[in-house]
What we know:
There is one protein chain. Helix content is about 35%, strand content about 15%. The protein is α/β, with parallel strands linked by helices. The protein has a single domain (about 35-230), classed as Rossmann fold. Helix 7 (about 190-210) links the parallel strand 6 (about 180-185) and strand 7 (about 215-220). The relative contact order is 0.17.
Amino acid sequence: MNAIPVTQVQSAKFMEQLRAEAAIEPPPVHTGEVKKETQIIAIYGKGGIGKSFTLANLSYMMAQQGKKVLLIGCDPKSDTTSLLFGGRACPTIIETSSKKKLAGEAVAIGDVCFKRDGVYAMELGGPEVGRGCGGRGIIHGFELLEKLGFHEWGFDYVLLDFLGDVVCGGFGLPIARDMCQKVIVVASNDLQSLYVANNVCSAVEYFRKLGGNVGVAGMVINRDDGTGEAMNF
């Protein structure tokens, strides 16, 4: 009798697990009082994978559906909102905060938040090259947002555009501190983008074990070359 290869046994067990998970009944539909809660979604991915492009289109689509949407760019190069504003970048929170501080003035909402085609948008920004940690800039930006009443603005959705380097504490902030409910990963079929996607998912899993509540909503596969690597991941 020929022995069955281990890989076939593992594959059969994996398929069995998938069928078992698929057979679990979903939770019942909530029938109680509906309460509005801002959905904060952080989008991660390696540089150049198309996060900002995806977010600009997603935020615009939501706004056209009547949703109140805030798009926050958390990338130090501050390019998240440029597509919405015809190639022009918004003044960043960090830059504006520094100028206001030197002038002895307080930062107001209108100094850092801008609107076009129904989408509210702002950029956190970051330090100059070689002069600070990008993650620390993000932490500073969110501290300022908290002071400005970030959670009281009544948005339906807040979309955060993050680099996939969650090894850095600043970029992993939404996951580590439950500052969002869901994470979406933008990737393609190449090894580098899937490496970043795996890091993000590992970070979510790690903090959930510590009592965190952030979950992975799914993956946007950009630049699909048909190999199916991202889908397999």
